[in-house]
Amino acid sequence: MVLPTREGRPQQEGTSFMSCTLYAQFGQPSAPDREDAPEIRIVKTCIAERDIECDFVDAKRQREVFNRFYRCHKPEIRRSEAGIRFPVFFDGMTVRQGVVPILAYVLSGYGLEGCVADEVADGGTVGGLFPSRCPADQEGHFHELVDRIVRGGCRAHLLTEGTGARLLGKLLGIGEGTQVSLAVPMAENAEGEDFAATVGLVCAHPGARLLVRPVGYGSDGARWPSERTVAEAVSRVGGVGPGTVPPLAFADPSELGWDVPPADRRYVAACARACGDLPGGIDA
Fold first, then answer.
1. Which of 199, 215, 238, 251 is deepest in the core (most CB within 10 A)?
2. Architecture of the domain whose range is 1-113
């Protein structure tokens, strides 16, 4: 299989995607001889079904091998206070970290770049899935990505930004393993019939939330949106939604890799006051 680069050329001119390594902690931490965790099985299955030859390195039991790789690619590998998040994939040119970015890269090369990320939603649910950002010609790959996660025994958390109702409807139809939240703030182009349809899908899905997330990546760094911005978003949802507005929740920055403090009680309370009597409540 030949994967495209950002410029649309094959990743390796005239050759297929052959020399790959997956670094992970295989087996279960308490019983390494048992089968891999579901997330690892999903990645391994996708690699095998795409006919990609891949070496598997256990980062814990083959620590020296992984450490050599890490020293060479340290700037490309995300490390938090909890350590390095596995799995990590390397094809000789590109490093991908996390279940969703690896699956996206294996399925589409750079095609899904910008609409996936290495994030974990509440309770270990697989996050980092942004259907509103998916290019039209990559919707098939995005659907396959989510389908593989759900069929593999994991839950997939979709974070819509208020656009792309057609794709969102297909994704939510995959099965009970899908969850959805509407991002706050929403996309600037979230409006009209598409926005109303998106809100309708969110409001109708069990467990849906309005998820407040930090914004901004400039010199000032990420920051929480203003209480007014949150209230305006809630008002817009209430204005087009078919029923009760989903509860307001606040993202955990530590799971997003952002250098911003968690939403404190004063901020949450200020958002609640700005929103008034929010029917769905506040999930803080």
1. 199
2. 3-Layer(aba) Sandwich (3.40)
